[in-house]
Structure formats: C-alpha cells, structure tokens
C-alpha cells in the first residue's frame, strides 16, 4: 500500500543495484521527489561469476514494494528479478535491459520511459521529458519541468538555458543534457546507432520542440 505524506501518497520503491550503479539516479530521485517517494536500496557488492545458475543467494525471497527499479549489471540477476517481480505482482522498470522472461518494462534509456499507469508516481515524475517554456520577447524566462530523467539532467539542463534566446536554446538544451547525463557514453546501441548520451540529448531536444509547438505558459 502507498503511504500518505501530507496530501500525497508516498510510493514505495525498491532499487536494485550493484556497486552503487544507481547512485546518480537515486540522488536525482531524492532531489526532486523525496517527499513523494519512499526509496529502499538493495545493493550487491560481491564479485560475481559471468554465469549465475542460482541467484537466490543475492536476491530476496519476496518484495514488499509498489515498484522495483533494476539497475543491476549482471544479466542473470535481472532476469530472475523480473520473474520474482512477476510472481509478486510488482511492476519493474529495467532500462537498457534485454529480458525475455518475466514482466519488465525495458526502455532503451531511463529518459525514454513512456507513461504506464502501473508505475504510479514514479512514472508520472520520471521518464521521457515533458517541459513547458515561459518566453518573453523570444527569451526563455523559465523552464518548468513536468517530467524528467531520474538522474536530474532534465532539470539541470533546463536551468542552463533560462535567459537564452529561444532559437539558441533550441540547440543548446540537448547539448546541456549531454553534460549532465550519467549514462555511459562509451555504450552504443546497434539499433539506434547512437550512445545513450546522444539518445538522451535527442529526446530532450524533441521535448523542447514539442513545448514550442504546443505553446508557452
């Protein structure tokens, strides 16, 4: 059950990581939603073999959470976590993973997560960016972030383009996102032909153009 916090329902999120692999995401979630999310971190520091036939030593027997987010680096752990979440009836987000079994939502990167009702508050606050622009004489006075990347890049980059000419900001926003994005720039997606950092820049640039098309506030 969600826990009440003032007028909000606090969503209980369990994050699975290895050797602090989700540190930037956890930091971002706490920066922008600490009053609405109750975050529990399940960390694995052990050095693991390439193949795990039995993951029970590292994963819990059950999960008491509204949502699980998988930032594990070992594929066998991610697969078995997906099956465990399916058994427990808990939705799981596993960005960048290729999981054939269990029920897991697997966007290419965190900021490509589309809306899913079952993800609750997390899904409304974090994922594919949504912004609104406040312009005066073609200068960006304020950027309101409705939804953004859990690492915080959406918000940090938004502050950098405030005060800029809108045409310059249109180009600059995606570049600023790359500076703040914490994805591995050396990783390369064979389908999109881009690194996660470049994909993050592109999706934020698209959000900027969408905001301009829909009108400013």
TrEMBL record:
Pfam family, any one: DUF166
Xref: InterPro entries: DUF166
Source taxon at top rank: Bacteria
Stored NCBIfam families: DUF166_seleno (NF041372)
Name of the protein in question: Uncharacterized protein
């Amino acid at each position: 059950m969600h826990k009440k916090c003032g007028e909000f329902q606090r969503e209980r999120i369990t994050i699975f990581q290895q050797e602090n692999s989700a540190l930037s995401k956890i930091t971002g979630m706490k920066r922008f939603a600490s009053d609405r999310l109750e975050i529990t971190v399940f960390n694995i520091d052990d050095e693991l073999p390439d193949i795990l036939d039995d993951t029970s030593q590292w994963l819990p027997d059950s999960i008491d959470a509204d949502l699980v987010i998988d930032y594990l680096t070992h594929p066998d752990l991610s697969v078995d976590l997906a099956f465990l979440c399916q058994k427990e009836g808990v939705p799981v987000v596993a960005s960048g993973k290729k999981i054939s079994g269990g029920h897991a939502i697997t966007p290419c990167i965190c900021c490509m997560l589309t809306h899913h009702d079952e993800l609750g508050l997390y899904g409304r606050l974090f994922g594919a960016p949504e912004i609104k622009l406040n312009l005066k004489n073609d200068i960006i006075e304020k950027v309101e972030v409705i939804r953004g990347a859990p690492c915080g890049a959406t918000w940090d980059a938004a502050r950098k383009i405030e005060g800029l000419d809108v045409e310059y900001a249109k180009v600059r926003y995606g570049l600023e996102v790359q500076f703040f994005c914490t994805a591995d720039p050396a990783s390369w997606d064979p389908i999109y032909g881009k690194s996660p950092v470049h994909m993050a820049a592109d999706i934020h640039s698209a959000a900027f153009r969408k905001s301009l098309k829909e009108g400013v506030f």
